[in-house]
Amino acid sequence: MEKVIDENAQGQSLVLAQEATNKRKMYIESYGCQMNFSDSEIVASILIKEGFNTTQNLEEADLVLVNTCSIREKAEQTVRKRLEKFNAVKKVNPGMKVGVLGCMAERLKSKFLEEEKIVDMVVGPDAYKDLPNLVKEIDEGRNAVNVILSKEETYGDIAPVRLNSNGVTAFVSITRGCDNMCTFCVVPFTRGRERSRDPRSIVEEVNDLWERGFKEVTLLGQNVDSYLWYGGGLKKDFAKASEMQKATAVNFAQLLGLVAEAKPRMRIRFSTSNPQDMTLDVIEVMAKYDNICKYIHLPVQSGSDRILKKMNRLHTRQEYFELIDNIRRIIPDCAISQDMITGFPTEAEEDHQDTLSLMEYVKYDFGFMFAYSERPGTLAAKKIDDDVPEEVKKRRLAEVIDLQQKHSLYRTQQQVGKTVEVLIEKPSKKSDAHWAGRNSQNTVVVFPKEHYKPGDLVMVRVNDCTSTTLIGEATGYSTNQ
Ligand code: SAH
Ligand code: F3S
Q1: Of 337, 348, 435, 467, which cross-links 409 as Cys (Cβ 3.0–4.6 Å)?
Q2: CA dist 19 → 24, 97, 334, 374 (Å)
């Protein structure tokens, strides 16, 4: 701190400090997908303009917001447990208000207010711009609800406030909603129809992040390959667009190219790809630009054609293999990960074996695996009996997880002895003497800190590995640093 401060400046900083302490404090907790974490940054941005400060300390919060997930029943139970905790805190901080955001808010709507007395405000994923009004309502002692889904809202005009940021990696949302209607999935109901964000505002956000020192962005959407900008509006209304709009439309491959060229040293990732919507030109753009990371999260959910059909996944096992073969042909060092569901209604042992054999074929680098959880309102819940016993779901899940671990280890072992490019993000969780970062393929790499710092792009020689982590030592800066 400066020793000599002129009186005026000192006076001014006192006033500023006073203002900061007078500001109301909001505490935001996020659950579920990356999109929720990204949305919370939009919410923070909106409320900071309304005079709030963020706090990490629940006990001192004036406004507690919980951004919720409905994807599986367990995710909802976790949020209900947190609400109990907030209830306990409210006993010592009676002025505290509680708002529920995100997918549970959208799913339960005003029922939330009846079911959970602690809740003052319920706000769906497309209604965050209404937060200033909703907060006024609760300030005046009324409950507030806005769960209206939108045809246009992409929050493209809001600069997110980066929460809990490492200063190196950031999320940039590019689409909202999903039109795919997988029969098990609640997302189309909670996040509405699919719409894409103006590519200019995406590139602007990426440029701004680069100026502020960020080195990697992840373009986010429920189904990024389906991105289509034609001047705004729902994807499903594209057919009604004018000839001019159609001629100047931007698809996902083009967007990737735009972002990659805007900042050639910014690392670019994206998530999530749906196999039925991923086209060869996306894979070719990935191959063309060094700064697009060689990693695709490509959920398949099941290896059985019969189950894929019942899930309304609009591709076959064979088509998925063809996509995998194309990825491996065009980008030989591309990492691929999966999401898998075990015990979808009617899944027989034979279907489960198909899942295991599909995994053997692909040998995924990572995976996110779940036992089927029936979600109210989905087509599967309405039409198909949840008939696979819980212990069978769990046993199949354990087998899928075991096999994935074997494949993950196989993949990491292939890296031992090689030298890989790593973007340093933060200290390793296990050792403060080590940095943790990821290689292009999204595998975590840890190595001794030496003189390097977060944000550096370094070459690391891999000496050892576990199924999830590469362990090595830096050999110097990358030429791309
Ligand atoms: N496209 C999305 C998928 C969201 S859901 C994305 O951006 O990631 C994430 C994963 O949760 C799905 O791929 C699926 O494997 C799993 N999932 C969704 N609904 C489920 C359910 N009802 N039961 C179990 N797992 C489910
Ligand atoms: Fe859900 Fe399928 Fe969309 S899993 S988010 S409906 S692609």
Answers
A1: 467
A2: 10, 21, 51, 49
